[in-house]
Amino acid sequence: MDKVVVTGISIQSCLGDTQETWNNLEGGISGLKISRPFVSFSRLPLGLINSQPSQINELTLQLIQDLSVDSKINLPCQDIGVVIGSSRGCQSQWEVWLQKRSHANPELQISFNPPWLKSLPYQPAILCANFLGASEVVLSPANACATGLVAIAQGYELSRQKRCTQVVVGAVETPITPLTI
Length: 181
What we know:
This protein is of the alpha/beta class.
């Protein structure tokens, strides 16, 4: 059986970027901090990447840019598969849209037409594929807390079955939203 080789890693977490996350994990440092990102909630211990909850599109683009540098991917890279999962996907965007709609004055007849095709759970996988210029398989598993592991397994199978010679795998979540809290 052919070997699967990891050529790059990209992490953005409440502990920092890839190197900071590893260092903080080794040092036993927690990324949780008491925060109040939403006025409707009291202060809570949260794992924020920045001072406010991250937006999934911005986080995904940062991760894929970092990964392309770390793995030395030459762009565009058409012969690469993408398996990037997300359970919640663009949940925070939907919450903002629904909040705006619920506070709108019904007499104003405000149209509610969010760009829903760009806000479904597969959006991180599509963003990565577009960034890479990929034209191979693009998958977007959604398996709750196992999403990242499922993405790795699917990427491994794509490689083992010789459907792709290279596969970018991973998961991205931006779970700190009013609904989730």
